[in-house]
Amino acid sequence: IMYFPKQAIFLTVILLDIVFSFSLLISCLWAVGSCYTVPCYEGSGLDMLWSVHSGDGFQMVIIALVAFLHGFFVLHVLFRQAYNGQTYGIMLAYTMCLIILMLVACIDTAQDDIMLEELEEHLNGGYFYERSDSCQEMTETACNEEGDYCYYENGVCMRRMVINDSLRRTFKAISTLAGFALTAQSFLFMFLGVWKEDIEQAFLSNAPRAKANKTTAKNQTIMGAYEDSANYH
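User: That's the sequence. What structure does it adopt?
Assistant: Structure tokens below.
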């Protein structure tokens, strides 16, 4: 393991990035497949339009997973392997691309949160209606007994829905966590750029010492085995 100046700052930022990214990944997995309304729209196309469908969910989860793995990659490059300029450049590029992805994720989910909040103040009192086979076949009495899911009006029993407040809070959490991860990654990118020469110098100065320690340990092992053999004879 190589040690270099300000390593405590790097470790703190990287660990914060990992914690935020892991929380982000869990929140994204929770949101996948959720509907914007309770109950969900049933109509073809509307069920995808009014939900976090598999395409959007896959995009959210992949971005969060890439962000989560990024922290371990940086830990490996800085603390587990010898200095390599090409690998260091890849790490910088990886971090920069991730900053852009986190910015997009933060803005996109914040927009979804605002959209659901405004839809809650819909002119129909926050309710949305859909002609549904499951409700339409009911009589007025059966429709009224169904409760919140079906609503009888003008001789028709329709499906009545409200905004999924749980999903709205999840979008808010995703946006907040993406913002925190974006902040940690931005500081990390800045530190990697500003302190690049210090890190490189620390690696190069520690390399001979690490090699010498490894050789000494190997010689001690060989001598120990030789002494054990001599004592045996």
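The beta strands are 37-38, 128-130, 150-153, 156-163.
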